[in-house]
Amino acid sequence: MSLWNGRFRSGTDQRAALYSASIDFDKRLYKQDIEGSIAHAEMLVEADVITSEEAEMIKKSLRDIETRIEKGVFQFDHQLEDIHMNIEQALINDIGEVGAKLHSGRSRNDQIATDERLYLREANDRLSQSLQDLQTALFSAAERFQHLILPGFTHLQHAQPVPLAHHLLAYVEMFERDRQRLTDTRQRINVLPLGSGALAGSTLPLNRQTVADKLGFDSLSRNSMDAVSDRDYIIETLSALAIIAMHCSRLAEDIIIWASQEFAFIELDDAFCTGSSLMPQKKNPDLAELSRGKTGRVYGALVGALTLMKGLPMTYNRDLQEDKEGLFDALDTVGSTLEILAPMISSARFNGNRMREAAQDPALMATDLAEWLVNRKVPFREAHRQVGRLVGYCREKGRPLNRITLEEMRLIIPSAEEECLNLFDPQSSIDRRDLPGGAAMSQVQSQLRFWRQKLT
Ligand code: ARG
To answer: Least C-beta-crowded within 10 Å: which of 152, 351, 356, 406?
Structure first.
């Protein structure tokens, strides 16, 4: 038996029923479905469609169904397709005719959009919190290890020395923009579609504002056709998730590189590593690798959703049922990635000596010498060329930049002075970059102050 088979002469083919059922994955919307139904029932009293006693019966039964689902004793049925009809049928089994009144003025088309928006609103808030937890972990490490310096890289080549805190806080910035994207998306999620009916609204005197108030929606959808047919709130969420996953993946990649024997900048806690089943000596950064690897499926979900939508004529099409699995998977994946990375960072040990050693190479301060010349009015391009030649000379002689005499330096850089020989200390090099956003400790201190205020 189905809730819609009035005009049908035969039942659904078993295979067809299984193929079209979404209950296996949309049952996770049960809470939102029940909240939406309760708000709808209460409003139906105001619209004079049901009595308040009937609304009470409906509410009581729905709460009972909710408890049964939570206890794991509710029997989901594929023949009933989805979460909406599974719950509605249970309600009718429970309280008969009164239960059969609940769906007045409502379609599964506006119901599913409402459930999804309610679900995403919560998921959005949870993600935002997890992002903040990861930011806090990164910030705390930055604060704890603020005296450490390491080489900054471009092209994965040693570039210029930077404080570890500067590097870690760069990720805090990325995750801040991710949170802003979520907050921004949330405004567009929090619009009530219920009352749009199948596509054109309802002839019943429904009070949509009442429903919106009860469910905490900020506004009502302005166009019923738009409300039941678009899924851009899912696509926006997925695109925010894809960007978060990308940022997590980059952080994971840095961790993986830093944990390698070649770098040895970081040692991950045993709790966030695994061993090799063959090589007894191995300690692998698998969790970081998985966070990098899982990024692919999040992108997949985004591309899947965009592709799902691109050819759909107005308004609701059953294709839309395919919007859920990728979304849920992406939400779970990104949520658990954030939850793994935070403690992985908090428990990691940073190897200050290795980092400092790597930052000692005077070649990292070549730019400082070029800029010293610029301060003496040498055109930058000329300064760059001269310092480049000096670097080549030192390479040929097999001597580091800080091991040559002023006379040798002057052969290549005529305006060089004694002072130039003292430009090769990484810590002072860092401190010379004292402009907003720069790597100087004083600037990093002000970043730390900013985040301390913001995150606590
Ligand atoms: N399970 C459906 C979905 O997820 C609910 C809406 C179905 N509406 C319909 N007219 N068949 O999209």
So the answer is: 406
- Predicted local distance difference test score (pLDDT) of residue 85: 98
Q: Single out the catalytic residue among 52, 276, 428, 442.
A: 276
Token duo for residue 207: 């009070």
Rounded to an integer, the average pLDDT of 283-302 is 96
Q: Which of 181, 161, 196 is nearest to 239 (CA)?
A: 181
- pLDDT tier for residue 273 given thresholds of 50, 70 and 90: confident
Burial class (CB in 10 A: 0-12, 13-18, 19+), 447: buried
**Residue 456's Cα: distance from chain center in Å?**
21
CA of 337 relative to ligand 1 center, distance in Å: 31
Q: Is residue 103 flagged as an active site residue?
A: no
Asked if 310 contacts 216 with a C-beta cutoff of 8 angstroms, the reply is: no
CATH class of 359-455: mainly alpha
CA distance 296 to 307: 16
Query: 318, 321, 332: which is closest to 83 by C-alpha?
Result: 321
Q: Is the pLDDT of residue 281 over 90?
A: no
Tell me the CA–centroid distance for residue 318 and ligand 1, in Å. 6
Q: Measured from the CB, is residue 318 less than 6 Å from ligand 1?
A: yes
pLDDT of 131 higher than 80: yes
Where does 164-224 show beta strands of DSSP type E? 191-192, 219-220
For the Cβ of 292 lying below 6 angstroms from any atom of ligand 1, the answer is no
Instruction: Encode pLDDT of 207-224 as tens digits.
Output: 999 999 999 999 999 999
Domain spans of the chain?
14-104, 115-147+158-203+234-357, 359-455
Whether residue 321 has its Cβ less than 6 Å from ligand 1: yes
**115-147+158-203+234-357 has which CATH code?**
1.20.200.10
- Buried b / exposed e over 25-34, threshold 16 CB at 10 Å, is bbbebbbbbb
Residue 51: what pLDDT? 98
Q: How does pLDDT run across 158-199, given as a tens digit for each residue?
A: 999 999 999 999 999 999 999 999 999 999 999 999 999 999
User: Is 276 known to be catalytic?
Assistant: yes
Pocket perturbation via mutation, ligand 1, pick of 12, 26, 32, 82 by most ligand atoms within 8 A of CB: 82
Ligand 1 center–CA 325 separation, angstroms: 14
Q: Mean pLDDT score of the chain, rounded to an integer?
A: 96
Model pLDDT, residue 342: 98
